[in-house]
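Morning - 2-deoxy-2-fluoro-alpha-D-galactopyranose inputs below, output right after.
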Amino acid sequence: MSEAVAERVSEDFRRLYGTGPEGVWAAPGRVNLIGEHTDYNDGFVMPFALPHTAVAAVSRRTDGVLRLHSGDVEGGPVELAVPELAPGSDHGWTAYPAGVVWALREAGHEITGADVHLSSTVPAGAGLSSSAALEVVVALALNDLFALGLGGLRLARLCRRAENVYVGAPTGIMDQTAAACCAEGHAMLLDTRDLTRRQLPFDLAAEGMRLLVVDTQVKHAHSDGEYGNRRAGCERGAALLGVDTLRDIPYGDLDALLARLGGEEEVRRLVRHVVTENHRVETVAALLESGTTRAIGPVLVEGHASLRDDFRVSCPELDLVVDTAVRAGALGARMTGGGFGGSAIVLIEAADADTVTKAVVEAFAAAGFATPRVFTAAPSPGARRLA
Ligand code: GAF
């Protein structure tokens, strides 16, 4: 399968640029099992990699030219001058790969140019981290070709810098770390404060379960103001409570501290979400480690309610997936990713897949919503070289 993908993408590269690439790499999209809007508060997250990947065929150049092409976007290669790459100069899809080249150079790594052809199966704008997959696959390719010797975490940090500074989206580090470091058959518990991580067993097929991803087809964008507003609200909460970040608030102290926030109703809700969400990540980690995977279902549902009512990043389509799936017998469900549209995840007994899918699709039709795209997500490998 990977061989066939590598061959196809190499062939496309050859047609575009006249010779074959020096190599082919892949980086996955992700689903976040639990731990939402915690990463920019130094908290815990638990993503796993999707089977869907961004694939890059890449060759080095020595003349300072960066040529970027995507098989998923109309038009020929875009040609950029590496020394002239600058934050804010590019607002299309090329900002992600170009931002990585910029971030590598800013960190002192010599990148003398490259020809890049990309092709991705990660649905765009679906909250499944298609942009981080693009960033990480390009970073890994350049790391190998220019012998930079950078590990997965270092690459993830540089990709986040590309996203924050070059693209201008104020995200945390979850998505880039997930693309770079996730492991097949596992969910990754990541402490975003120091980037320590533990791979937790999450082999649902072996336990007779499945995880469905429901892409509501409602498009989201992180660079718009809502994500940044939530982030600013969290920072205000930390400042009001006299801590560096909301991560520093122990779950046991939450009620007492919330009482200190007086008339700051919105900040109080944001703080409550982040502190309880960090606690939910720890609960889910303990359940997965003790082999009681089914018991995570109610924790996922609680997490959704907190994102809907306290953090206010859900939308009617995401709420409908969760409510319908749970009523149809799912073990648990929640929105995943930044929200304001995008995807929900639904944990089910494998035998219930058809019933739950049908219930969700029918509920969407009855509500007059676009037909959702539903697929099963098995925890898949992180970024790697294919050829
Ligand atoms: C988006 C961001 F990119 C992540 O950093 C994270 O904050 C997530 O939203 C919410 O958990 O995917």
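Note: The chain has a mean pLDDT of 97.

O.
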